[in-house]
Design goal:
1% strand, elongated
Length: 274
Amino acid sequence: MTTFNSTFLAFLNEAQFTKELLAIGVTQLRKANYATKGIYYQSFTCLSTGIERMEKLCLILDYYILNDGILPHENYIRSHGHKTLILFQKCQEIAKQQQIKFRFSCKLNDDIHQSIIEVLNNFSESSGRYSNINILFAKNTEENDCICQWYNNVDCKIYNQRISLKKKAGIESRATVIGTVMDHFASVCYATEDNAELNNVMEASRRTGIWEAVAPYRQLYMLQIIRYLTELLIELGYKAMKGHSEDIPHFGEIFGLFYNDDTYFRGRKTWDKL
């Protein structure tokens, strides 16, 4: 009869919880737009928490490997705070020091990947998570509006860099036609991601077209970041198992959903259901 020790169960439970957070966050990320801005907060909450917890699992395993099966004191992890960006840089350092060989591309230094990590980093801090509440206290939070940051620094970059001219022309043409036909019969009233007032049908159609075009790419870029941490966690787990297999679960079995190529990532929309 197999008996799991407390260390094994702690790693297992933490990994399973983290995987579920990320699956929900990636799924919601594809759905969020100007008309459903609350979904951005759902996604950012799950993703920022999930990425941070995954990064800290990597830090714990690295310490465990370097100290022959000894776990770090909680102050070691607390000292790194909640800054997703700094933790991600630390994970990249660990990958080099541990000479991790990646199956998938680990080049995440382009401006879109970096912008995603920066938005999640800003959101993980209280000024980002509570930007709307802070407005009620008359605090200037424009620079901490993570939805606005995402739209300007992620979606707009994706739209400019990844969407074809033909696709863009189709979005503009459709918006013009819908606006011409519907403006006399319909009205809209929204606040856009960058907090502009959206009160005409043509601009609403245009924004919808942009969202539909960039949503698969924003999900893909996010999954590439998660895949990098997944590979790192799996390889660190294998190293940690040497001599201490009773303490370490097979992280590949838990995070296997994210251990796939870009073709699979592009073909799947929903990640929180098997």
